[in-house]
Each structure stands twice: as structure tokens, then as C-alpha cells.
User: Which sequence fits this backbone?
């Protein structure tokens, strides 16, 4: 009995030499014969163009009995001419030949025998030669071309070719045998029948498809646009709510932002209402932040800002009309513009104005005499030139001169 170990470097006086067969034997013990692959997709695929009696093999790698092989480009193989009346089946094989005159792995056409019922030739697998079948193709009689439709891929057939796998593996066949023995021993111990299992499956399927069972309810009654998917409906609600917050924040302005929650936006709005109510109260309009926003806004118009004033010019005549004021005048002064030959001056004051003791109408010329004076509505001190009359309205006034009237540009002032 001998002990064998490998592989080690040689040392002076202790040479360690190995044969290629030693390496092949090592790899053959851990890796099966077959095609190397990527993600279980093997290479070395056989194809034909259908224009001649040739097939070709695409690039790829393989291991046979521990020996490695690689094809780096499409390699074409020529098939023998067919018989006149009988078909045959050829195989395209990858052959390991360990004989001294060979020592290679190469691609070959393994020619079949013509027959009325042809079969693929048997692979050679012995001490020196080992073949993997990549594909078989029917060579039809009396033709000069091969048909791609007659090509059968055999690379994944583990009895003919197969993929390289580790020989250091779990003995699943042993496990399967033990499992089968176990199941045979308990199969009469009250296990469910096929019918009972199917009945359970149907109940599970019915349960999973029932919306009411899961508390979902009728999705067709959803108020969202999407009514077929709960996820889509929730996404729609989220989008609408987020857009709503953005719109509110843009209207309210700082410090509100689109990133605020609805509760935070509510706080910002309430704080603004409280500030508005406080400011209105300071201006004499009693207000609280719990009032509606419309009610608070309406009170802004009631805030007193002092008496309003307006002035301008108007062309003289028997009637002078001024419109477009934003208030109803309580005091009006109309006078001739500087440089006029006659100096007309007309004054109106509402009764009760602290600047005048009596409500009066007056028309005063340059000699400082009144044409007319009205006290409490009674005409007094009428001169020969007649009296002047005012008509006051909500946005202006009209002056009517019954006698002489100015013709030049008149200046006017109006006070609320």
C-alpha cells in the first residue's frame, strides 16, 4: 500500500514531478465532466446556416475527466454527403482522446447510419476516449443542405453531456430514498386526501379574494379617482393633501411653509387672526380671534382714519359739479383762482361743524359782502345778486349760482 500526496514544489535532492494525468485525476475527483456555464446557461451551442452541409460550434469551455477545453471562435464542421434514399442522424461531439498519438479534446462529427428509421450513433466512452454530445442533426437523403429545424440541442441532457457540477455534494438521492420510506410508513395515518386539500385551497382562495373579510369594503365607493387599488387610492390622497398644504401655505405666506402639518398651518392662521383682532381693537373696533375671517375683514373698513380731504379745480359757470370723491363732504370751499376780475368765494358748512357757529350757505364777492346767508334753513340778508345753493351727495357736490356766476377756473376744497 502506498500513500500519495500532491502537489508540492521540488527541493534540492527531493524532486517532486507530476504528470498531466495527475492534475486531471485531481480535478476529475471534484468536478464532473460537462460544459462550463454562466448562470446555468452553457456555451458551445451548435448551429447551422441551412445553406450547406456544415454545422458550427460557438465559443465555450468544458471539462472532461479533469482535462480542460476551450473553443475561442465559431468552429465549422463538415458532414458527409447523404444517401440517395435514406436519412441518417449525425452527432456533433466533444471528444477526449487520451491515447499517446492523440492527447487532445476536439470537436468531431460522429456520423450515423442511414436507415428508414435512423437513430443517433452511440457515444464512445472507454478507458481512452470519452465523448460529450452537444447536438444531433438529421441529414436528409438526396440533399446538399442541412435544415436548422432538424437540429436538436443535447447539451443539458446529463446522460449525453450536461453541465459541470461539484462532485462534493449532498447525497440527495439517499435523502429522497429515506423520505420516500418515511412517507410510505405514515401514508395511512390520517393524512388529508387530495379532495380535502383542494377544498382547503378553494377556501383560502375565496378568503384572499374577499375584500369584506379583510375589512377593505367596496373599493368602487371610494371618493378617489382610483377605485381599483388601495395603494393607488392612498397615493392619490397623499398627493391631494400635500398639494392642499402647498396652496394654503402660499396664500398665508411666512411663517407658513408647504412642509408644515395641517395642525401647524391652523396655528399660523389662528395667530394671524388673533393679531388682526388685537390691532382692530386698538383702533376702536372691538374684536376677538374667534370671529370669522370675513367678520374681521369687514371691521377693517370701520376703522376711523381721520377726516378725509380732497381738492381740485373746475371750470366756472352757473353750475359747478364735482364727483368721484371717496366720502360725503361736510365742508366745501369754492373760490375764484387768483387773477380773476371778479373774486367769487362760496362756503358750505354742515350744521354742527365745530369750525362754524351756524350752518350756513354763503356766496362772498371781493367786496366782502354776502349775497345770501342761511341760518337753520332760513334765507337771510339777501343781496341783489341773489343766493348760492349747495347740493351735497355721497361722492361730491353741486354749486348753483342763481345770479352772476364765475366764468374762469375755480378752485375747490372738500372736507369729510
Assistant:
Amino acid at each position: 500500500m502506498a500513500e500519495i500526496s500532491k502537489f508540492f514544489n521540488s527541493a534540492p535532492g527531493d524532486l517532486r514531478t507530476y504528470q498531466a494525468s495527475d492534475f486531471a485525476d485531481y480535478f476529475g475527483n471534484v468536478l464532473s465532466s460537462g460544459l462550463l456555464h454562466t448562470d446555468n446557461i452553457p456555451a458551445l451551442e451548435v448551429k447551422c446556416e441551412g445553406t450547406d452541409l456544415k454545422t458550427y460550434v460557438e465559443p465555450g469551455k468544458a471539462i472532461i475527466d479533469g482535462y480542460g477545453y476551450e473553443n475561442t471562435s465559431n468552429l465549422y464542421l463538415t458532414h458527409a454527403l447523404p444517401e440517395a434514399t435514406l436519412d441518417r442522424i449525425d452527432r456533433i461531439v466533444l471528444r477526449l482522446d487520451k491515447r499517446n498519438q492523440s492527447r487532445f479534446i476536439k470537436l468531431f462529427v460522429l456520423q450515423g447510419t442511414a436507415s428508414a428509421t435512423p437513430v443517433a450513433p452511440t457515444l464512445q466512452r472507454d478507458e481512452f476516449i470519452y465523448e460529450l454530445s452537444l447536438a444531433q442533426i438529421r441529414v436528409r437523403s438526396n440533399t446538399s443542405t442541412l435544415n436548422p429545424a432538424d437540429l436538436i440541442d443535447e447539451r443539458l441532457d446529463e446522460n449525453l453531456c450536461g453541465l459541470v457540477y461539484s462532485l462534493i455534494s449532498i447525497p440527495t438521492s439517499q435523502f429522497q430514498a429515506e423520505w420516500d420510506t418515511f412517507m410510505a410508513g405514515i401514508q395511512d395515518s390520517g393524512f388529508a386526501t387530495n379532495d380535502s386539500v383542494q377544498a382547503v385551497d378553494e377556501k383560502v382562495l375565496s378568503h384572499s379574494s374577499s375584500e369584506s373579510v379583510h375589512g377593505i369594503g367596496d373599493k368602487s365607493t371610494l371618493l378617489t379617482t382610483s377605485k381599483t387599488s388601495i395603494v393607488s387610492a392612498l397615493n392619490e390622497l397623499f398627493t391631494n393633501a400635500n398639494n392642499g398644504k402647498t396652496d394654503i401655505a402660499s396664500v398665508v405666506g411666512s411663517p407658513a411653509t408647504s412642509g408644515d402639518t395641517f395642525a401647524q398651518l391652523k396655528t399660523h392662521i389662528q395667530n394671524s387672526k388673533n393679531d388682526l383682532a388685537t390691532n382692530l381693537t386698538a383702533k376702536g373696533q372691538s374684536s376677538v380671534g374667534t370671529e370669522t375671517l370675513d367678520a374681521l375683514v369687514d371691521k377693517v373698513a370701520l376703522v376711523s382714519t381721520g377726516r378725509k380731504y380732497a381738492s381740485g379745480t373746475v371750470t366756472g359757470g352757473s353750475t359747478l359739479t364735482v364727483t368721484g370723491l371717496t366720502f360725503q363732504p361736510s365742508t366745501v370751499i369754492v373760490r375764484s383762482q387768483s387773477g380773476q376780475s371778479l373774486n367769487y368765494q362760496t362756503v358750505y358748512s354742515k350744521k354742527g361743524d365745530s369750525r362754524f357757529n351756524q350752518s350756513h350757505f354763503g356766496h362772498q364777492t371781493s367786496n366782502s359782502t354776502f349775497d345770501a346767508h342761511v341760518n337753520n334753513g332760513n334765507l337771510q340778508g339777501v343781496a341783489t345778486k341773489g343766493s348760492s345753493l349747495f347740493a351735497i351727495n355721497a361722492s361730491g357736490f353741486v354749486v348753483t349760482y342763481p345770479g352772476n356766476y364765475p366764468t374762469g377756473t375755480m378752485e375747490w376744497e372738500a372736507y369729510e
Summary: The longest strand covers residues 129-139. The first helix runs from residue 20 to 30. The two ends are 132 Å apart (CA to CA).
